[in-house]
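From the pipeline queue, job 12 of 40. The input is one protein chain; the requested action is below.

Action: predict structure.
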Amino acid sequence: MYPVASILFLDIETVPQYSSYNEQPEEWKTLWGLKAQYLIRNKEEETVETIYPRAGIYAEFGKIVCISCGFIQGAGTDKKIILKSFAGDEEKKLLYEFSEMLKKWSADGSKFLCAHNGKEFDFPYLCRRMVINQIAIPSILNMSGKKPWEVNHLDTMDLWKFGDFKNYTSLNLLAHSLGIQTPKDDIDGSMVWEVYWKEKNLPRIVTYCQKDVVTVAQIFLRMNGEPLIREENIEIKP
């Protein structure tokens, strides 16, 4: 059992770097065209332009617009989760602020990070975008040179696999399976690019991201036989 108070639960939201395929510089259009060759499933309906919204899930073509994280305090039915988000159009700024917070919080070397599918998406995406933005990767996030048991990364999807390497379970499905209120009551991941680039509604994305963080934390608690956090015990820091 991991000490819950030593875990930072997190989630990121990403979008394509440009509002549409045609807004990209020519060199990026060429590079996306090469990438898209491997992504197009239906040759008759899909083109490099129509699948460009998917660019956000690839660190080379996307950017992070929100990082939400949560800390659990207290114990039993009285515990609460404190949420903090780093969001904005300036990716380098939000990554730097998140990085500085992470360095201070994890300085004693006894902390853990937890996300759903974090080992395949959130953690490597954060590292790649930090390198691109020339920001030093905090030690707790960086796997380079570490032995497997030295990496303090937890993943609720990985925990749910119970050793099954081929199984993928979405956050929404796992929450429903465990009787936890689903966070997908407004938008889902496939809609984030549109909410950002067309609606220009970043606060809506932040709210969605924070709900995911709470759900990840609730799943972790349920899987470890602990009481869930009551709704009135969810606190959001500015």
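Job complete. The CA atoms of residues 119 and 136 lie 19 Å apart.
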